[in-house]
Amino acid sequence: MSFFPASGLYLMKSRGCVRSCVTITSRNLSSAPAPLAPPKLNSKLALFLYQRFHDVEQMVSWSSWLKRWTLRRKNVYYGYTQMHYGDNVAAAYYILCMKGRFRFAGQSDWFQTNYRGKFSWDFMNFRDVPIEEVDMSGTLINYSGLDNLESQQGLRSLSLRGCPEVDDWFLSHLHIFQDSLEELDLSHCSQITVGGLASLHRLRKLRRLGLSSLPRLQSPGLVRILLEEVLPHCHISGVEYSQGLDETGTDTGLQTETEINQLTEDHTYTQGPHRQTLTR
Q1: What stretch of H or E contains 184?
Q2: Per residue in 128-144, is it b (16+ CB within 10 Å) or e — as a string?
Q3: Higher-confidence residue: 236 or 254?
Q4: 102 and 110 Cβ atoms separated by less than 8 Å
Q5: CB count, 10 Å around CB of 113?
Q6: What pLDDT does residue 243 have?
Q7: Rg, C-alpha atoms of the chain
């Protein structure tokens, strides 16, 4: 008789233990963290753009550094060539390396590169002949590279048409040719302003000046009038008197007055005992 109660008690205890284990297990399962939901489409797009933004930023930074390095390398001073072969050969070599072209004084043939960038070394035979005409159109010549041409004091013609690195600072250094330069083409140079053109009054022998398509000149017609005053013997082409004026003849440029004053003052200062130079 005592066995059954004991067995019954045992069963009851066993069932209570099982019930307790089930309860504890269910509580543990309920307290476990829920599985992560897949990211939404907006989050995926934001992450994608974030990663690509940094990729593009690094690419732009690298591209900018490469451009600066290329400009420095192309416009380096050819001092070694000048020391061993003379000024004329060094200047000629620089022009050809920049894919420009030139003509020696007293010669009718022009030296230039072919479509592959190759050129003839026959210019080495003209060590004692100065360069008379230079065409650097579309090249990356800048202010530093101009030092390679400084020795050519007989330079009569210089074309800088479409040179993206020619700016006001470059033009301020052209006074080194003030006793020889007769023709100058600055057409399609996007960085030139009236401040750079103001320094051209030093070119006393200039007879032809090309100024077409200069986007930073807001009143080209008035600038031409003032340039003709400071360069009375120079023929200016590429700019009409009416450019920058409306139908009533009123100036439409917002900075015209400042530009005119800058050009006039620069010319006035150079007539006195102290010459004012353009500074950056």
Answers
A1: strand 183-185
A2: ebbbbbbbbbbbbbbbb
A3: 236
A4: yes
A5: 16
A6: 84
A7: 38
Residues 6 or more apart in contact with residue 191 via CB below 8 angstroms: 164, 165, 166, 167, 168, 216
pLDDT band at 63 (very low <50, low <70, confident <90, very high): confident
> In the 8-state DSSP scheme, what is residue 23?
H
Q: What angle (nearest 5°) sits at the alpha carbon of residue 87, between those of residues 70 and 99? A: 35
Average pLDDT over residues 123-129: 96
CA atoms within 13 A on the CB side of 272: 9
Mean pLDDT of 238-246: 81
* The pLDDT value given to residue 191: 96
Q: Burial of 224 by CB count in 10 Å (0-12 exposed, 13-18 middle, 19+ buried)?
A: buried
Rounded Cα distance between 120 and 99, Å, is 12
Helices 256-271/220-230 angle, 10° precision: 10
Q: What is the pTM of this model?
A: 0.71
What is the average pLDDT score of the chain?
80
**All residues at 6 or more sequence positions from 272 whose CB lies less than 8 Å from its CB, including other chains:** none
Backbone angles phi, psi at 14, to 5 degrees: -65, -45
